[in-house]
Amino acid sequence: MRKNRRSYDRVFKQEAVRLVVKEGRKPTEVERNLGIGKGTVGRWVREIKEDPVYAFPGKGRLKAPDEEMYRLKTELNRVKQERDILKKALAYFAEDQK
Are residues 11 and 51 in the same domain? Predict the structure, then answer.
């Protein structure tokens, strides 16, 4: 039998981290009180210390800078494909002119 993974929203995670950082509680204590798996709050604390602005973007979402990079790469690939099609068309029509 599989357990369903619980998901926590950004505000919940920030509040759990605040309990550790600002109030000086131990991560294991916070995990036990909130019914969270072992090591989870510690990971959240590391995530927010590494990137306080973009931590916890949401399930299936990229952080804002990564999302912008993904969008730009996708657009670049599309433009390259269009360019290649135009090159081939130009070569084809140039051949017909001869």
Answer: yes
